[in-house]
Design goal:
Layout lengths: L7 H14 L4 E3 L5 E3 L4 E9 L2 E9 H5 L8 H14 L2 H4 L1 E2 L5 E9 L13 H5 L6 E10 L7 E3 L1 H6 L5 E8 L2 E7 L5 E3 L1
Parallel strand pairs: 3-9
Antiparallel strand pairs: 1-2, 3-4, 4-7, 5-8, 6-7, 8-11, 9-10
């Protein structure tokens, strides 16, 4: 399922180097790329290859559920379940050009909050301070019947669903090449 996204570590390298140059806190999330874990900021990798659109969202759990600890209370468990349900509906989070006819084929959701222990960051300094970073990773593969009509991805529904997300750094590979775009709730449309 991740064949198209394998090219992204190379596309994201300049972004990772920029983050390092600015002293941002970096972690390896098991995707082969360095990523800054910064509350309020998420990453989206998008690849359009032929009629296949792959989207991979990587976000600190804080942005989506409001906490990063394992859910123990009923309220926390309910919040995790509700967020998981939202993430299972990619067409409600990513507004795609309707004429492109994109439908989800496969999806994979991972997070320590969903019981995926391998996704927890292992930064000793933070563990010593008692704060563990937890991320949520959502990977989607969609098939588009008319991919040439997919001209943009609107992230407005994603920002509205998860208001603690203030910025999404997008790495895009499509028919017009590759680019990196920084989106926000007021600038949420990415042109392909």
């Amino acid at each position: 399922m991740r064949r198209l996204l394998l090219a992204l570590p190379f596309a994201c390298l300049p972004l990772a180097m920029t983050a390092h140059a600015h002293g941002e806190h970096e972690h390896d999330h098991g995707h082969g790329t360095l990523a800054a874990h910064e509350h309020g900021v998420a990453k989206l990798n998008a690849v359009l290859d032929g009629n296949t659109l792959e989207l991979e969202l990587d976000s600190p759990a804080m942005n989506l559920v409001g906490f990063e600890h394992m859910a123990s209370s009923d309220a926390d468990k309910a919040k995790v379940a509700a967020v998981r349900q939202q993430l299972e509906q990619p067409l409600k989070l990513f507004a795609l050009t309707a004429a492109a006819g994109c439908t989800p084929d496969q999806q994979e959701l991972q997070s320590p909050l969903f019981g995926d222990a391998a996704k927890a960051d292992d930064d000793a300094d933070e563990h010593e301070k008692g704060h563990v970073h937890s991320d949520i990773n959502a990977h989607y593969q969609l098939t588009c019947t008319a991919p040439e009509k997919l001209t943009q991805i609107d992230l407005s529904p994603l920002f509205k669903a998860f208001p603690a997300t203030q910025k999404i750094n997008v790495q895009l590979i499509g028919p017009n090449g590759q680019k990196g775009v920084e989106t926000s709730p007021t600038k949420a449309v990415v042109t392909l």
